[in-house]
User: Fold this.
Amino acid sequence: MNKEANFKANGADRYGRTSGIIFIESQDINLLSIKGCYSWHFKRYSSDQQYEDAEAYARENNPGLLRLPNPVPPCEWRKGN
Assistant:
């Protein structure tokens, strides 16, 4: 791929972990990842409507992780493991 990625920090969670947006050539990789359902929109730390819309699109079109019979969001998986 050999492309430069940029990270724009937008805060930290309650554990002090930095959260933010990853960009490659001005494309929001977080948004693409959610739309392709390779990640979930974690609403506790982001209320951005475009991420909400991307997740709704992914759920309707069943790409990525939603192709699995019983997809489990990471936050739910961590609670049980």
User: Anything to note?
Assistant: The helical segments are 29-35, 49-61, 74-80. Residues 5-80 form one domain.
